[in-house]
Amino acid sequence: MAWIALPDDEATPQLSRLTAPYRSEGRPTPSVIAVMKPSHRTMRAVLALNNAVTFGGSRLGRDTEELIATTVSALNECFY
């Protein structure tokens, strides 16, 4: 049970835009991201930072980078 009251993904126009990629895939907003929904400015900044740091920093391409990230997470037994 969540201890933090989180707004609905479409509670505001800003949240609706930020959570649209998850809804379009038919999945919930990941908890690690959803916890930032009370501050859409924070959520937007963290998503932009994550995207800039995690992807696009190499010539491997997004698919290969995602595969590497998934493999490393599995090897590290990450459950998120």
Total strands: 0
Radius of gyration: 14 Å
Sheet/helix structural class: mainly alpha
Question: Which range best describes the helical content: under 10%, 10-25%, 25-40%, 40-55%, 55-70% or over 70%?
Answer: 55-70%
Strand content: under 5%
Quaternary structure type: single chain
Could you give the distance between the termini? Answer: 16 Å
Give the SSE string. Answer: HHHH
Main sheet record: none
Number of helices: 4
Residue runs with pLDDT of under 50 for 5 or more positions:
none
Gross geometry: globular
Q: Quick check: average pLDDT?
A: 87
List the helices and strands and how they pair.
Elements: H1 13-24, H2 31-34, H3 40-54, H4 62-75
Task: Provide a concise account of the structure shown.
The chain is mostly helical and 80 residues long. It contains four helices and no strands.
Plain-language structure description:
The structure is a single chain. With 80 residues, the protein is mostly helical. The chain has four helices and no strands. The radius of gyration is 14 Å and the shape is globular. The two termini are 16 Å apart.
List its traits.
mainly alpha
